[in-house]
Write a structure and sequence with these properties.
Its main location: cytoplasm. The chain has about 190 residues and is mainly beta. It has 3 domains: about 60 residues, SH3 type barrels, CATH 2.30.30; about 60 residues, Nucleic acid-binding proteins (OB fold (Dihydrolipoamide Acetyltransferase, E2P)), CATH 2.40.50.140; about 60 residues, OB fold (Dihydrolipoamide Acetyltransferase, E2P), CATH 2.40.50.140. It is built from no helices and 16 strands.
Length: about 190
């Protein structure tokens, strides 16, 4: 058993007969009344995100997890297939278990959290950023760079990202996976 002081991003807890991963939290100490922790929880089975508030000192049941490196192989409709980097065993996960499946290209190495009690995969953690090639974008208008103007661009995985006007088709860009935002252009 853990308490609210142990809450951190990525912690998996058992709550309401389901396993949730904490994706956001904030310790609040109001001037009047007891302290509490405001959290955003994501169900690892359904992918549904809920808001919840725990009072300070509340006991929470944490789930013991192990992390393993897996390589993304392919996806066929609703299932995503991964291969363990150590023993080459393969697993498949539903799309709901992934945070940003649209930014994952084949061969990408991700970290998968596995429940230590029953060896069930819980969720997939992407690297902090990924490098993808722009496959389609409108050409930028010359001289329209006084403001931080952006345009939509489609990358090789099919995801759409807003990029600065100077980005062209064929450019490789770094994308922050947590927010799905453009970070920088990669020079080759």
């Amino acid at each position: 058993m853990a308490s609210t002081s142990d809450i951190r991003n990525g912690l998996c807890i058992r709550y309401n007969h389901d396993i949730f991963k904490i994706i956001e939290f904030l310790h609040v100490k109001p001037g009047k009344g007891p302290a509490f922790v405001r959290t955003k929880l994501k169900s690892v089975t359904t992918g549904k995100v809920i808001d919840n508030t725990f009072s300070a000192g509340h006991k929470i049941e944490d789930v013991r997890v192990e992390t393993h490196k897996f390589q993304f192989l392919y996806h066929d409709g609703e299932f995503y297939h991964f291969m363990n980097q150590e023993d080459y065993t393969q697993i498949r996960l539903m799309e709901a278990a992934l945070d940003r499946p649209d930014l994952m290209k084949e061969g990408e190495v991700v970290t998968i959290l596995i429940n230590a009690e029953d060896n069930m995969p819980l969720s997939v953690e992407m690297p902090a950023s990924v490098i993808l090639e722009v496959t389609h974008t409108e050409p930028g208008v010359k001289g329209n760079t006084a403001t931080n103007a952006t345009k939509p661009a489609t990358v090789e995985t099919g995801a759409e990202v807003n990029v600065p006007l100077f980005i062209n088709e064929g450019d490789k860009i770094k994308i922050e996976t947590e927010k799905g935002t453009y970070k920088e252009r990669i020079k080759e």
